[in-house]
Please model this.
Amino acid sequence: MTKLVELPQGTLEMLILKAISLGPLHGYGVLLRIQQISGERLEILQGSFYTAIYRLERRGWIKGEWGESENNRRARFYSLTAAGARQLKAEAAKWIDMTTVVASILDKKASEI
Amino acid sequence: MSVLAAIRRLWHAVAPRTHSDVEEEFCSTLDAYKQDLIRQGFPGEEAHRKARIDLGQPAAQNESYRDAIGLRAFDELGGDIRYGLRALRRNPGFAAVAVLSLALGIGATTAMFSLIYAVLLHPFPYAGADRIMNPVIINEQHPDEPQWFPLNKAQFDALRLAAPVDSLLGFNNSHMEITGGGLPEDVYDIYLTEDAGAFFGVRPLLGRNIAPSDAENGGHSVVVLNYRFWQRHFGGDPRVIGKTLEIDHASYTVVGVMPRSFAFNDTTGVGDVYLPGSLMRGIGNVPYLAYIPWIKLRPHVSLAAANSALEPIVRQFAKEHPERFPDHWHLALQPIIVPYQQETGRTLTLLLAGVVLLLIIGCANCSILLLARGGTRQHELAIRSAIGASRWRIVRQLLVEAVVISCTGAALGVAASYWLAKLPLLLTPDSFPAESVIRINVPILAFSVALALLCGILFGLVPALRLSGNDSARMLPGRQIGIVTAPVTQRWSVLIASQVALTLLLMATAGTAIRSFLQLIQMPLGYDPANVMKLGIMLHVHDPGEWDRIQSHDPRTAYIEQIRDKIASVRGVSTVAVGTDATPPYSGAESPFNVDGNRDREQPQARVMLVGQQYFAALHIPLFQGRIWNADENARGDFVAVVNRAFAVRYLFSSHALRRQLRIPSLTSRNRYIATSAQSTAWRQIIGVVDDARDDGVDRPVVPAIYIPYTAEMLPYVQFLIRTQGDPLSYVRAIRVAIASVASDQEVSNGVLPLDEAIERDAQYTRQRLFSMLFGVFSAMALTLALVGIFSVVANSVAQRTTEFGVRLALGAPRVHVLWVATRVALVSAAAGIVMGIGFDSFLGTVVAHWMRSAFSAGTLFAAAAPLAVTALLACLISARRAVTIPPSEALRYE
Model:
């Protein structure tokens, strides 16, 4: 089994937005999808997960609607709003920028400076 | 509907999802997770259990939802408030006292200030009321009796053009009668210059004001109604405009109704109806039938500047009619508020000071309670902090409780103020301008409420910070051995001392007010009001047959005497006297007169009393010198007069009064309803001097008076002063029957009035009674608050120290000693407060003397301090009783 990764502060919301952008999902589905994409390397606590979902909904980045789940139960499906899509784009760009810079610094060897 | 929708939308914006919505989502997640676990191979029961353990309670989910969307602080605050209310319900005595202390303070302060504002600062509804002046002539020899001066048309127009005058109102009054209906009805008319509408700037309730166009063609026959008259005569009919009103057999069209607040004019009598001034007959010809002016000054003109600008103009008038002005005089413009300020101002200011004290005492009391209560909650707070409450959380909890108390007190206080503000007006309607509408003054209400809240927060915060600062480990065992930390007491002992001192100040003031009221009651009147009543009849001037019979002098005298004799023959009636408008304590009409040998160019004035010869016997006014006229002289009406001693001293210099003569030139028949004797204005011999009897109000010096036979000038109405054996009102029926035996349709006017009741209705009397009562009530409230304060701190500290007292008693301390230990701090603070209060009062005595016209006497101070000391001691002892009555064994087991 591979080692678990701990998420830095604030990245969970971005991951949720990303997961939902791939297609509307109910809350538990979002959680499973993130874990599945990460190759089970992320463990997400239920408590902080739902707090993040509520906060995203409150800000109007995702929108919840009641629908039918795969096992014929009522479930709340979340989809990305336009504002959410913009937010995801901006966050992702920022994240990639940052990681590129940090990685490029970490990759440097003494001889390269 | 739209409001509800708006609220729902707003609520939706704050909390978009409902509880059940969040819960349902949680359950579906729970379910999905469980299915997952089963798929992974967990048995059903196990999967269910694990899912519940991993995900938690549905209710907790809601909490985290509200936390996520930022509502948690509100939830906690709501919890604090609910907890605070529950804590107050658990301890209702404490809550009630704290809340009532604040409510009383706020209510009384706001009510009193609103009253003062309405009465002193802004009583009139007129536009620019502070610029409206009542011009008077001050006689420099008698500066306390300002005179009005009527102007004829030319003078009036000259005054209107003066530089400082913005606009000018002229008015004159007349008693008339409403005719054309069934019974004639008395009506008080005020003629107004036709620009009065613009002068007052008061919008009529219905229709219009009297307008300048009403002056055309010698005046239109229109009438504007006073609100009360409209209510009384027309039953408040909203379609009254356009109807006609017949006054003295002339028809007037109703064009307007004034609002309730318009009651022009309080000083000379509130008019029932207002008529265009042009209708006043004889303006410009008859010098005395003219306009009385009110002047509205231009903005920013000072009183002194206006006085000096107008004085030369009035000097010119004096040259034209020197007989109407005294020898040495100056003009004074009086703001129209002045009469009320002089009469009521001082005492109202004093009352305001009193209620501010009450507010402070109320706040202090609330603070004492909060401080004392804070001490008893150490244990509870220690537990809260031990199980993890943050300091901020505890402070917030205590603060919320304090604010709950202050807010409840403030809300009650606001409600109380509405009621209290009406109280003085209900008790003494005569002491205040009829026009002042008492409204609650919002700024002062806000001030009182803010003060109460501030006090609640401040004194809620002190114990909150102190208690929350202690660490729980130290506080918990401390509770078990029953030892109390000392510093709390010092704070409340200062509060107790100042509260007691202020209470003493209020009680001393109340004592002084009550004493001066008692002095007023005991002041000699000069007449005996007991068992005497006034009863009036109106002659039938509008019944031509009957009027012809009694219109002339002699038959009218005979008619009145016949009625008098019949009343006198009623069993139980001892004396009956005729007295036209000569009912004390306000009797007679101010009239000019001449005294023989008096070379003064000034025409002096005195009260002229038209009375029958029995008047002095009926009122028990003793004869000082000479004699009273007899029945024959009374029927003739001429050549005799009796004066009072004030008259003799002022105008006859007491020398040989009985040899002097006087004449009253104004005793002429001015209209067809008045019958005068043959030589009513001729010289009269002074045949007697009587002792002074109050004729200008119960508390004012007696003014010079001339008594002459009533037949000298008979008005179309007459009053009888009837002395009876026992309660005069019980004879009214028999007297009505007696009068009817003379003339069956002769009705008795409304307003049969015993003279002692007339005194009770006197403005000064009612005012002084009101102030005594209010101050009495204030000091009683203050005393109650102070005692409750003392009681609750002692009771609280005894409750906290029960174990300690148990130990002391068990070790053999005498009960007296334990009692002393329990009450020492409170007793010492109360004693210090009394000493401080006495010092304070002696210092303030001179200030108060200025306001109340009498200082605190040593007797009053003692009378206030003694009950305060005794009740304070009692409060201490009663509340500390528990400390010595509880058996030691029980005290040690306590808690």
About this structure: Residues 282-288, 477-487 of chain B have pLDDT under 50 and may be disordered. The CA atoms of residues 114 and 441 of chain B lie 5 Å apart.
